[in-house]
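Lecture notes, part 5. Sequence design as translation. It can be helpful to think of inverse folding as translation between two languages: the language of shapes and the language of residues. The source text, in structure tokens, appears below.
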């Protein structure tokens, strides 16, 4: 059985979709959700879906404690789902090409430190882009610069608001992220 650890900082909608996708899967399971925010909505979602969830503060990431926890869960793939901390070097070294992220734009556009959530959609609209989408990528020591695994596009529609664009981008995330995770674990 291949084991996924999901790192999340927010509400957890992508984490929930991933958990639901792999519930009852014959070869893959979500072993744990780790969050750096004690009040994150992902905690409630994980508990409702009976997936172990752990709160580890930002300091635990810097001290290598999260990498230790990942090893204890025998993690095969680390999945970032709305996780807002930089992944420390010890984790990158322990899990080379085994940590993936999803970003709500077509990288390299609108990526980097501080570009997450509605900030990305606002920037896409301000730039007058004709399309947006998602990028699923491996992570490295730089924000949003790891090797791209998959990109999927959606149109930017005249009169779009950040929320309207976010809704279309979220649909792409929900559709593609679990499938890409499954493909990576089948390799």
């Amino acid at each position: 059985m291949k084991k996924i650890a999901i790192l999340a900082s927010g509400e957890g909608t992508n984490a929930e979709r991933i958990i639901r996708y792999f519930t009852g899967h014959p070869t893959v399971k979500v072993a744990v959700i780790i969050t750096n925010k004690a009040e994150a909505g992902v905690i409630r979602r994980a508990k409702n879906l009976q997936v172990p969830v752990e709160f580890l503060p930002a300091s635990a990431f810097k001290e290598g404690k999260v990498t230790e926890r990942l090893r204890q869960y025998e993690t095969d793939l680390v999945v970032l789902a709305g996780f807002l901390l930089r992944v420390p070097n010890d984790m990158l070294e322990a899990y080379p090409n085994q940590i993936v992220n999803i970003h709500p734009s077509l990288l390299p556009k609108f990526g980097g430190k501080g570009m997450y959530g509605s900030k990305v959609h606002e920037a896409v609209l301000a730039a007058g882009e004709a399309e947006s989408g998602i990028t699923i990528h491996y992570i490295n020591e730089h924000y949003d610069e790891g090797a791209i695994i998959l990109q999927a596009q959606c149109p930017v529609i005249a009169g779009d608001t950040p929320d309207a664009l976010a809704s279309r981008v979220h649909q792409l995330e929900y559709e593609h992220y679990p499938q890409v995770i499954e493909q990576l674990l089948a390799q």
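The translated text above is only one of many valid answers, since several sequences can fold into similar shapes. The radius of gyration is 16 Å.
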